[in-house]
Design brief:
- The chain has helices spanning 5-10, 47-63, 70-74, 103-114; strands at 15-19, 22-31, 35-40, 85-89, 93-97.
- The chain has one domain (2-114).
- It contains four helices and five strands.
- It is globular, with a radius of gyration of 17 Å.
- The longest helix has 17 residues, at 47-63.
């Protein structure tokens, strides 16, 4: 983790996760009660892809409210990184550093706001 301190200061949108014995660095796409999907930086093929990935991450981090997953916020431009998306079972997944984006939280918040209770007068 100490090795990653400089990287995390420079790129605050990156997450460090432990999957089994392996450490994974990337951007979490969606985190639910059962599954965690993450775009893994180490899987990217070339330095051009890594640079583009980090640019998109920077754009997402500073220009969004960070509640939407990066692939939805950036749009078609981010599709080129879809090969680096990995999905893990939450039982084997531990978030060591970073934020976990969850679409489930957005849905829950909207449902709570729309809840209307009718009271019948007697």
């Amino acid at each position: 983790m100490a090795d990653h301190k400089e990287i995390l200061e420079k790129f605050p949108f990156l997450c460090i996760c432990r999957v089994g014995e392996e450490e994974v660095i990337g951007i979490i796409q969606n985190y639910t009660q059962t599954l965690a999907s993450i775009y893994v930086l180490n899987v990217l093929n070339c330095t051009e892809d890594k640079a583009g990935f980090l640019e998109c991450g920077e754009e997402w981090w500073w220009q969004s409210n960070r509640q939407l997953p990066i692939n939805l916020f950036i749009g078609p431009k981010f599709k080129q990184f879809s090969y680096s998306l990995r999905t893990y079972n939450v039982k084997d997944f531990e978030l060591l550093h970073g934020e976990a984006v969850s679409l489930q939280n957005i849905i829950t918040k909207r449902i709570k706001r729309r809840q209307i209770q009718l009271v019948q007068k007697l």
